[in-house]
Design goal:
The protein has about 450 residues and is an alpha/beta fold. It is built from 14 helices and 15 strands. The structure holds pyridoxal-5'-phosphate (PLP).
């Protein structure tokens, strides 16, 4: 076992941390979970931290859940890897597909598995293009929203509407971005509800302008995650569903972050009773314990490919049995432990505290989100809605870590409040108390930079 000093030295010399400069001193080395807790991590020095971000909004069921750990260990003991390419199967992956089919909205019960969210969204977009190409059309353009996040691979990055994620030179051709539903910072300069949903009209105009014969799909998150836990107004998804149907544009709901009870429903699209044509899932599918992801296809797409080779996906690790076993165990817990009900209860309490205690503070401009997919937006000034410099929010994060609280600021200034979904009111209250005192003093972070 390496010493603490060796680990720090090797980390700095050999490990690339994304979204960080290379070679910096590793801030925290986690080694385990606090005895008896599923929400508190312990670092190499024995210091404890409440995981208010659930890592990157994936450890939905909290850390150290024995049921998932045992399922993984047992599966590794039985069969380690069988591909799902060609006509190969294994019991865990087949059962995982069957179990997922019971959870997703009806008509979406066919799954292609992958190892992470980016692979799932990439595969969804490739499937959409292949579907239309094989139908003899030229529909190929993918539309997505500004402020969206769909992943780090070239295609998923191209769909992403946050330009700081466009490493190496921006989106590929045939990707088009439109204003989304971030009403607090409406790109069309409108105000909800007097806007009469002009963003949706703008989306339709874009489809018509590009020519519906050229547009393959719209991909959107039911709630924008990396963009700051931004939930749409209630009309948005039903109106967008209708427009996609009207113009023969496939609708891909990217549920990578919002799925598995995060918003208080098993899948966030259930909040508006809409049915996408494809749906991506990852993160919470195994509560982050094993890399695993899924793309759900509707009956129409599944039937279309019945007499053809399925052209997209096909990764070595698609449907990995160990990931599938973890997903089955996680699904058991979501359903049996009524995790969505806990999210509704704890989420309501957190929201009330955010509105009552955080929103009146001079540097909180808005509270966003649904369920336990929430955020408090930091501003320099409520009137101007000025975005604080990154260095100030980084200072806030650093102070949080000092006090044993782990959180992120999405797109720089939205403090994401996305605790594990099994958190109790008492646990989140402790975290919110610390956060409140930090935010009250945010003025000093601004002065310090
Ligand atoms: C909505 C959404 N789609 C896709 C991704 C990419 O997933 P991954 O990081 O597993 O590749 C993410 C990751 O945060 C996400 O939030």
């Amino acid at each position: 076992m390496a010493t603490k000093e060796e680990l720090e030295k090797w980390d700095r010399a050999h490990l690339v941390h994304s979204l960080q400069p290379t070679g910096v001193e590793p801030s925290i080395t986690f080694v385990g979970t606090k005895e008896g807790s599923n929400v508190t991590l312990v670092d190499i020095n024995g210091k404890e931290y409440f995981d208010l971000g659930s890592q990157v909004v994936d450890v939905n069921l909290g850390h150290g859940q024995k049921e998932i750990i045992d399922a993984v260990a047992q599966q590794v003991g039985k069969i380690q890897h069988i591909v799902t390419l060609f006509a190969f199967s294994n019991p865990a992956t087949v059962e995982c597909a069957y179990r997922l089919a019971q959870l997703v909205p009806q008509g979406l019960g066919h799954f292609l598995f992958a190892s992470g969210g980016s692979e799932a969204t990439e595969t969804a977009m490739k499937t959409a293009r292949a579907y239309w190409q094989l139908k003899g059309t030229n529909k190929r353009i993918i539309i997505s929203l500004w402020n969206s996040y769909h992943g780090m691979t070239l295609g998923s990055m191209s769909a992403t509407g946050i330009n700081m994620m466009w490493a190496g030179g921006g989106p590929a051709v045939d990707f088009e971005h439109v204003p989304g539903y971030y009403c607090y910072r409406c790109l069309l300069g409108e105000e909800y509800p007097s806007c009469n949903m002009s963003c949706v009209k703008n989306l339709e105009n874009t489809i018509v302008g590009l020519g519906p014969d050229n547009v393959a799909a719209l991909i959107a998150e039911p709630v924008q995650g990396v963009g700051g836990s931004i939930a749409p107004p209630p009309e948005w998804w039903p109106m967008v569903r209708d427009i996609c149907t009207k113009h023969d544009v496939l609708l891909i709901a990217d549920e990578v972050m919002s799925g598995f009870c995060r918003t208080g429903k098993m899948f966030a699209v259930e909040n508006w009773n809409i049915k996408p044509d494809m749906m991506t899932m990852a993160k919470g599918i195994t509560s982050g314990y094993i890399p695993f992801a899924a793309l759900a296809l509707n009956d129409e797409i599944w039937n279309f490919f019945k007499d053809k080779y399925f052209p997209a996906g096909g990764f070595t690790y698609s449907g990995h049995p160990v990931g599938a076993a973890a997903a089955i165990a996680a699904m058991n817990m979501y359903v049996r432990d009524k995790v969505c009900d806990n999210v509704a209860k704890v989420g309501k309490h957190v929201r009330e505290r955010l509105e009552k205690e955080f929103l009146p503070l001079p540097h909180i401009g808005a509270i966003h989100g649904l369920g336990l997919f929430l955020s408090a937006e930091l501003v320099t000034d409520k009137k101007t809605k000025g975005i604080p410099p990154l260095a100030a929010t980084e200072e806030l994060i650093r102070r949080g870590r000092e006090r044993g609280l782990l959180f992120r600021c999405a797109v720089g200034n939205n403090i994401q409040i996305t605790p594990p979904l099994i958190s109790t009111v008492e646990e989140v209250d402790g975290a919110l108390d610390i956060l409140l005192s930090l935010v009250k003093d945010f003025g000093s972070c601004l002065k310090a930079v």
